[in-house]
Amino acid sequence: MRPHQSLVHSRTRVTQQFALLPLEGFPFSRLPGFPGADVRILATPALGAGFAEYLIDVPAGGAGQFDSAEGIETFFYVNAGTGQFEGTPLTAGSFGLLPPGAPAAFTADEKLSLLIMRKRFQPAAGIKPFEAIINHERRVPSAPWAETYKIQLQMLIPDELQYDLAVNIFAFTPGFGLPIVETHVMEHGALILQGKGVYQLGGEWMEVEKDDFIWMGPFCPQSFYATGEQPAKYIYTKDVNREIVL
Ligand code: UGY
Ligand code: MN
Questions:
Q1: What pLDDT digit, counting tens, does each position of 155-195 carry?
Q2: What are the boundaries of each domain within the chain?
Q3: Residues with C-beta less than 6 Å from any ligand 1 atom
Q4: Domain 26-137 carries which CATH code?
Q5: Nearby residues for ligand 2 (ion, Cβ within 5 Å)
Q6: What is the CATH number of domain 141-239?
């Protein structure tokens, strides 16, 4: 935090199509299911997003769980720390996708920082509901993207019709980026995990760095290139594989 007497500058941007939200701007909230945890609510329908995203810091020795709201699926990613999910050990990079109704209870050994995304699951006729996935990013293969090994993509959720959600981790060598401006119906909630770069959102370029959260709404023009000395990495969610609800 800057000294209290200094002028306040911020890279924060909120528009109807996108939001750039550096973490310093979020005051902590509390959640009944996570007593003692520091909660940042990153995105909600009030912002324009079709989902809710949270960053929840559970203190060492603490515990928490989400309510089993009907029809709501939950994705989690361990940003830092150690703990357990329903008896499975968690370390930085562990993740899970839980179908509606599945238990979602966490305990923290060290302080556990959880990125959580929740959205209404969209069933599809003739497609069986999915079962819970619990895994670790180190077990997910990384593949060159757009025909260059300088950009690597890890798809944490299998690319199968059972799932209406994709969650990917992108890693860009400095100087490399998306070679196009994408414009698509799918929304993204993105957390920059490492490094820095320049994001184009709604036709404007803006600097981004580790710990920034970005919401990209439907049809928000978007592009990115990495700057700095180390690869820039971000994790992002994307609604996929379903007809448009009219
Ligand atoms: O999967 C995507 O839509 C991805 N290429 N978008 C993004 O990184 N902004
Ligand atoms: Mn995109």
A1: 999 999 999 999 999 999 999 999 999 999 999 999 999 99
A2: 26-137, 141-239
A3: 170, 178, 182, 188, 222, 236, 238
A4: 2.60.120.10
A5: 182
A6: 2.60.120.10
